[in-house]
Design brief:
By secondary structure, this protein is an all-alpha fold. Helices cover about 80% and strands about 0% of the residues. It is built from nine helices and no strands. Helix 7 packs across helix 9. It starts with a helix and ends with a helix.
């Protein structure tokens, strides 16, 4: 039996270089989805309410390593801003940090053997705290209007938070369950 026959292509025991290449490709896919999914939501005028960029980043956080998930979260708003003009500054600054927290927290919580739904909810809560703190800090520094304060920022995204908390764990569960067995 040669070396190729010993390990199936999707095996967790594959060559580390192969694993890294797969994770980079998956990270690029989630970043690309983070740019394209918001375009679809904005066509229907619901992008700001449903936080569409958060969906692929949270999903990525549940299937990627913490460093890669955080990198996807950090780069996605910048890639979207360069390619589509959205989100504008200063929102892009806030979003790069909050999405890095979202992806990284989901990955770390899942690696601690938490259930998928708990990992997603913890990541969403961590992201909300990051959003609140960052928005308050930037509002003071940039002299933003009062409606841009942290609480208003988090509250405006409640429908999107509900969507993330329900849809993403359900969608990611089959992939995660397969990996855990």
């Amino acid at each position: 039996m040669n070396e190729d026959e010993k390990l199936p292509a999707g095996s967790a025991s594959c060559d580390p270089m192969q694993q890294r290449a797969r994770e980079l490709a998956a990270g690029a896919l989630f970043c690309a989805l983070g740019v394209t999914v918001p375009i679809l939501f904005h066509v229907f005028g619901v992008g700001r309410v449903f936080l569409p960029m958060h969906l692929p980043v949270l999903f990525g956080g549940l299937v990627l390593s913490a460093p890669m998930a955080s990198l996807v979260g950090f780069l996605t708003p910048w890639a979207s801003m360069v390619l589509t003009g959205m989100p504008p500054l200063p929102m892009a600054i806030i979003m790069c940090v909050e999405l890095a927290v979202l992806g990284g927290a989901a990955s770390l919580a899942l690696r601690m053997r938490m259930p998928v739904w708990a990992a997603a909810w913890i990541a969403i809560a961590a992201r909300a705290v990051a959003t609140f703190v960052l928005t308050l800090a930037l509002a003071r520094v940039l002299h933003l209007p009062p409606n841009a304060t942290g609480l208003a920022s988090v509250a405006a995204g409640l429908p999107g938070i509900a969507l993330q908390a329900i849809v993403i764990p359900v969608a990611a569960y089959p992939l995660i369950a397969r990996r855990r067995t």
